[in-house]
């Protein structure tokens, strides 16, 4: 039964910007374009039909002129569908754009052959991959700036993969191919390796997520602390591996240690203020009171003043010790 499906309507309505070009001696004549391509170019289809492609679009500001002018050479040479990769374009193509108008398109060229096997038409289509590109850029940025990486472990084949961010944490080349065996060099000790695989085995057995802190030694000999979070990969109720994230928390732990040291110092200061300072100060107050009562008795004055001086010096030493604990050494020089 002959189909009543109207292919021209389908071509016009598909969301992917597409244009049909006829190959001739003068270049590439625009035979037709769909509505999405018209919106992308801000030109009516009538204004595009019959025009030579490079006369209508002589340049692309985001593609080198030589590459732009040779856009169709690969499909003519190889005589098969060609993926030109991702290209950056302004959408719509006008002079009042902002960075929000920058779009990324994956460009495909599909050859249409005549009865003699020669390319008669080329269908040029553009797939909007802007969101994927943005996500990839954000991912790469996070890998670089946050000391954050990803890892994968295939328990069926005993293989593993590390992201570039993870390799940066370990201070190894991006070409490094990890394996169960080669990974052993980065564990701080055998106990750390055993602890990691124990967490992995328990997560696989229970099909649950795990979180652990691991001490490692980088390729440059630096000790780092990693927070590892792993999640089982379940296929038809069977765990085939693990995937997870690794975050370098060395600086965070150092900061926590610093806070704990400050807390201990403050605790010592509180003890000194409540015990060590109060005792000599109480004696000074008592001596002063005694001086008031015995001031005119003569011989005892010298002894009392000596005792007062000793207690004052004792208090001075305690205060100096408090300052030493709360101020950097540079400030005391």
From TrEMBL:
**Annotated InterPro entries:** PAS (IPR000014), PAS-like_dom_sf (IPR035965)
> Which SUPFAM superfamilies does this UniProt record tie to the protein?
PYP-like sensor domain (PAS domain)
| Domain PAS intervals | 20-131, 185-251
Which Pfam families does the protein's record reference?
PAS_9
This chain belongs to the protein called PAS domain-containing protein
Q: Which organism is it from?
A: Sphingobacterium nematocida
């Amino acid at each position: 039964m002959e189909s009543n499906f109207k292919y021209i309507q389908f071509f016009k309505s598909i969301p992917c910007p597409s244009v049909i070009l006829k190959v001739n001696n003068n270049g590439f004549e625009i035979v037709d374009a769909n509505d999405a391509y018209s919106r992308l170019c801000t030109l009516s289809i009538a204004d595009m039909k019959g025009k030579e492609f490079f006369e209508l679009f002589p340049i692309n500001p985001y593609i080198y002129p030589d590459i732009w002018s040779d856009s169709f050479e690969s499909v003519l040479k190889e005589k098969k569908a060609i993926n030109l990769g991702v290209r950056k374009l302004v959408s719509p193509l006008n002079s009042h754009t902002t960075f929000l108008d920058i779009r990324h398109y994956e460009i495909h060229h599909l050859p249409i052959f005549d009865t003699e096997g020669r390319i008669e038409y080329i269908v040029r289509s553009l797939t909007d991959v802007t969101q994927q590109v943005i996500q990839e850029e954000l991912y790469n940025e996070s890998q670089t700036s946050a000391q954050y990486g990803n890892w994968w472990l295939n328990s069926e084949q005993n293989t593993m993969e590390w992201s570039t961010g993870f390799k940066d944490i370990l201070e190894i080349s991006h070409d490094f191919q990890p394996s169960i065996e080669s990974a052993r060099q980065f564990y701080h000790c055998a106990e750390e390796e055993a602890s990691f695989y124990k967490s992995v085995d328990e997560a696989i057995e229970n099909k649950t997520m795990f979180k652990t802190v691991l001490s490692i030694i980088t390729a440059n000999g630096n000790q780092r602390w990693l927070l590892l979070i792993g999640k089982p990969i379940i296929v038809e109720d069977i765990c085939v591996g693990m995937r997870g994230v690794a975050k370098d928390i060395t600086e965070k732990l150092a900061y926590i240690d610093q806070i704990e040291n400050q807390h201990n110092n403050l605790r010592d200061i509180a003890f000194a203020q409540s015990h060590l300072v109060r005792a000599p100060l109480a004696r000074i107050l008592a001596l002063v009171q005694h001086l008031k009562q015995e001031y005119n008795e003569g011989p005892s004055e010298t002894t009392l003043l000596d005792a007062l001086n000793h207690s004052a010096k004792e208090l001075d030493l305690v205060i100096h010790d408090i300052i030493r604990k709360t101020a950097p050494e540079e400030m005391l020089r």
